[in-house]
Design goal:
By secondary structure, the chain is mainly β. The chain has one domain (about 10-130): Jelly Rolls, CATH 2.60.120.10. The protein is about 0% helix and about 40% strand. The chain contains no helices and nine strands. Strands 1, 2, 3, 4, 5, 6, 7, 8 and 9 form a nine-stranded antiparallel β-sheet that branches. A hairpin with a 7-residue loop joins strand 1 (about 15-20) and strand 2 (about 25-35). The chain is globular, with a radius of gyration of 16 Å.
Length: about 130
């Protein structure tokens, strides 16, 4: 079953829901999903001061692509801070987090199963003749 078809809509039509786990102030807005699978598109909101240490280091069995829309996240394992406009592409099994968001953060995420990776996608890049 594919994701449902939707033309442009205001994401505010979809309510914020507390994320699974034990981290107050971590909420998601599921924009599109395939029920019963890991495939989903969502906004993830970290309230100012959120610390996901209670959830530990994360590791998934699905692909996860993330862009930070506002604010910043600090990965406590890496000791690095990531800011608005930065992008991550995480293959299944990639370890990440835990995170702190001192000033809050909003991300846009696309998640999909490993079996979906690259299916029907064209890879953009330089023309063959310009590649080494």
């Amino acid at each position: 079953m594919p994701k449902p078809e939707r033309e442009f809509f205001d994401p505010a039509e979809v309510g914020w829901v507390d994320c699974a786990g034990d981290v107050p102030g971590l909420q998601e807005r599921i924009l599109s999903a395939i029920p019963g699978t890991s495939t989903a598109t969502r906004l993830l909101r970290f309230a100012p001061g959120v610390d996901t240490t209670r959830n530990g280091v994360q590791q998934h069995d699905f692909w996860e692509e993330v862009i930070i829309l506002s604010g910043s996240l600090t990965d406590l394992t890496l000791g690095e801070t990531f800011t608005k406009g930065m992008y991550a592409c995480r293959p299944p099994g990639m370890r990440h987090g835990p995170w702190v968001a001192p000033d809050g953060c909003l991300t846009f995420e696309v998640r999909y199963a490993d079996t979906d990776a690259g299916v029907g996608l064209a890879v953009a890049g330089p023309p063959e003749e310009s590649r080494p």
